[in-house]
Design goal:
The structure holds 2 protein chains of 2 kinds. Chain A is built from 22 helices and 22 strands. By secondary structure, chain A is of the alpha/beta class. In chain A, β7, α6 and β8 form a beta-alpha-beta unit. In chain A, α8 packs across α14 and α16 crosses α22. Classes of the chains: A alpha/beta, B alpha+beta. The structure holds thiamine diphosphate (TPP) and magnesium ion.
Chain lengths: ~600, ~160
Amino acid sequence: MNPQNSNTTSANDANSTNPTIRGAEIVIRCLNEEKVKFVFGYPGGAVLHIYDEIYKQNGFKHILVRHEQAAVHAADAYSRATGAVGVALVTSGPGATNAVTGIATAYMDSIPMVIISGQVPVPAIGLDAFQEVDMVGVTRPCVKHNFLVKDVKDIAGTLKKAFYIAATGRPGPVVVDIPKDITAHLAEYIYPKMVEMRSYNPVLKGHSGQIKKAIKLLLEAKRPMIYTGGGLVLGDGSHELVKLARALNYPVTNTLMGLGGYPATDKQFVGMLGMHGSYEANMAMQNCDVLIAVGARFDDRVIGDPKDFLSKQRAIIHIDVDPSSISKRVKVDVPIVGHVQSVLAEMNEALALEKTTNDISAWWKQIDEWRGVESMVYANSDIVIKPQYVIEKLWEVTKGEAYVTSDVGQHQMWAAQYYKFDQPRRWINSGGLGTMGVGLPYAMGCQFADKNAQVACVTGEGSIQMNIQELSTCAQYSLPIKVIMLNNRYLGMVRQWQEFFYENRYSESYMDSLPDFVKLAESYGHVGMKITNPADVEGALKEAFTKKDKFVFMDFITDQDENVFPMIAAGKGLSEMVLKKDNKERHED
Amino acid sequence: MKHIISLLMENEAGALSRVAGLFSARGYNIESLTVAVTEDPTLSRMTIVTAGSDEVIEQIIKQLNKLIDVVKVLDLNDGKYIERELMLVKVKANVNFKDEMKRMCDIFRGRIIDVADNSYTIELTGSCSKLDAFLEAIDKTAILETVRTGASGIGRGDRILKI
Ligand SMILES: Cc1ncc(C[n+]2csc(CCOP(=O)(O)OP(=O)(O)O)c2C)c(N)n1
Ligand SMILES: [Mg+2]
């Protein structure tokens, strides 16, 4: 096939008097041009030329992690917290494959990233060379796009494109695989000013006619509902959404990925929806007559069985930057493809001109009745620490302002349910792929993003051990993260499903031979705390957060048998919620 | 329903595997896929024959458009189009069959392009269903081997897929 590339990257006044420099230096110059502040990485043979150039520069800070998976997670969280493109650098072969889980995690949650991987020299490609793996092939299903650079002259143009593709449209990770010899070859350094790709032109502005239709529908609604997801957070549309929701006085729910998109302490907020969402959120979602979905995708953990969802009639407006997200699981009536922020801004302008107002007090009355069910109330105890209580206290002690990262399991759901996020980009978790082990590296990314912020990593004793080696990175860079480990000595979420669906056969879900986490933390120079008494929870949290420059590992010994409620079993519908353990399914009237 | 999708994509290494990978990852069906460079050497044109409900086809088109290397996608079934496939069939050169085979070949406007002691090779072009019909019409026991290119499609008249 013809290697010639017709996508142009226009160079700034290309006078060819520039001196030639090594490919590795070109990589560094490009990253500086993109104003990259942190590169999370791990060295190895194929990227040694690049690391040599890193040694000579100070445009960005390189963060040496302890495992490539953590490098990608940390860069991913840095992006989630700041909105900037996260950058990771790994070597070929095992370095590259170690990065794959991180890349797939970012892909599922649409996080803009550029991952640079080393590759064996071009003449060795395909010969099963030492540390060779077909990175472009391996990552193809879990990247927005990827490139193999085969000529030093293409490095700058490719990196420019990679940053552009990662950050625009529906964002996502882009892998740039660079063979070692290419980083040693010489070329002139010309960084393109802009990218033009005939094959890639993401839509930004929503269709005005569709926006008008949406406004009309919204104003005619009797039982309206606003449902927002991760796309609202990633598209920085939160401010416009709050404006819209307040002007209309309509109820709002957020998905797990969308928490913080609308302030959780606001009276119009009905809580998170979905598998472990609040009763009022799921009931309102099911029974509304006009639904506006913003940067959300009706996935299986949100609406459950689409058949159950569609058994009720409602008109659906869907705003999303990705046309393929629209009408994928649920057919919508008014699709609006565009950047959420600009579409919502246009809606707000149109709404400001409207004279009609819409009184939905009857609907609010119904919602308040559902709220009266108090689906999030749990039985506290003064004997054993309830995990929900720890999160409530964490919220109080941090005044609701912390960056909260989580791992995957029951603790993740409790964090989502009981920490009230009032700001976007504060709740950092792996919603799409559900990757255990993200919590600690995510906290690292957040702390680098905002060095004075309070960063809490809510985790379980199972998940934390999947990237526990990063305690060392945290020591090296003096990161004052607070680990809030809800230690139930179980792979709790697995155990919960085994209790519900496998008649208490707890197959391989017990966590035995745990280390002494206090000693482990201390061995890295961190502070370790073990909390076993409910009365000590608040005091311990306060003490930990006053240690402003210390990494504190808090091992909370929690109730082993606690389950996450409410719950909709996988494959069931929103109307088939279980509120408490002893309750039968609670069907609507 | 069967759909023929035409697309233009950057003529770059790996572009074909992105399309093939998309179909297998999302469980879409591929009946045939053909690809070759166009008169513009930077572009390849692909014809994909697939089947699915309207919703599935809509998703396929959207997902194809989402691939960064894909420049344009057209569902030929949205309008009038022409579809052609090339088939080579090697049949036994049995004396008894000879005239009958020749006659079938004429009816279907095929050509005999190779003659050996024990076999003939017939070349046949047409819509996929015409090629199917030919195979139905001849004596199956005479078939030694067949090879088909998969369909290529093009819109009729003013329906042009170009950038
Ligand atoms: C890498 C990975 N492996 C397996 C799973 C399946 N899984 C989901 S939750 C869970 C248990 C997590 O245990 P823990 O971290 O202790 O959290 P808990 O549920 O007890 O709060 C497991 C094994 C996963 N999500 N990710
Ligand atoms: Mg656990």
